[in-house]
Amino acid sequence: MAILQPWNIVFTIGFVVYVTTRGRFAAKTKGNESMDRRVGLQEKILLPFVISTSLLFPMIYLLTPLFSFANYELPVWVHACGVVLMVGGLWLFWRSHADLGLNWSPTLETRKGHEIVKHGVYRRIRHPMYSGIWLFSIAQGLLLNNWLAGWGVVLSFSFMYILRTPQEEKMMTDQFGSAYTDYMSETGRLFPRIRQSSPEQSKPTD
């Protein structure tokens, strides 16, 4: 079975950590009261698509020969890069959940007592969890020698990210107003914003 190959074992370990992390925090926030939930048809279609490509497709590839027609080979150094990205993605994924605490939700919604989280990894990045998912998704493509199981999630999550992020930021703006727009001006979506020095700061001193 493909799962017994070294890089597939590495991915499987990361996969278990990823799912366990999400399950742990989902259990912690399960009883939180929802205040504003915006799950439309688009979300209902995209979410199963992302889940299938990130969870189901790898399992089919690892445990069955059904996707063997889409196999290919990658050099060892590419797999090694995948390991680095996977470790970074898993840490950021966990840290984002931990910093959000009870504010986290798997769908577009705010909970009772919801706050704008500005500490930890959210101090400079407003969507670090998406950054972690991006890193893990790319790592999946670099570790699994299969077009469908490896890169399908990059395609599906691209649609999810592009369509969901503006809606999420609108929801937060509707609830928190200028407090959130100010936060947006101070942070980057996926990476820390490059801060430019002000004219006063750039003036030479005597």
What would your notes on this structure say?
The protein has a two-stranded antiparallel sheet with strand order 1-2. It has a single domain, classed as Four Helix Bundle (Hemerythrin (Met), subunit A). Helix content is 64%, strand content 3%. With 206 residues, the protein is mainly alpha-helical. Helix 1 packs parallel to helix 3 and helix 3 runs antiparallel to helix 4.
What's the short version?
The chain is mainly α and 206 residues long. The chain has helices at 6-29, 41-63, 76-100, 128-143, 147-176, 178-186, 199-202, and strands at 34-37, 109-111. The protein has a two-stranded antiparallel sheet.
CATH architecture: Up-down Bundle
Number of helices: 7
Tell me the overall shape: globular
Report on the biggest sheet: 2 strands, antiparallel
Beta strands, count: 2
CATH topology: Four Helix Bundle (Hemerythrin (Met), subunit A)
Helix vs. strand class: mainly alpha
Name of the top-level CATH class: Mainly Alpha
Indicate the percent of residues in helices: 55-70%
Tell me what portion of residues adopts beta-strand conformation: under 5%
Q: Note the gap between the termini.
A: 71 Å
Sketch the topology as an H/E string, one letter per element. Answer: HEHHEHHHH
| Total discrete domains | 1
Taking all residues together, what is the mean pLDDT? 89
Low-confidence stretches: 197-206
Q: Give the spatial strand order of the biggest sheet.
A: 1-2
Question: Which value, in Å, is the CA radius of gyration?
Answer: 19 Å
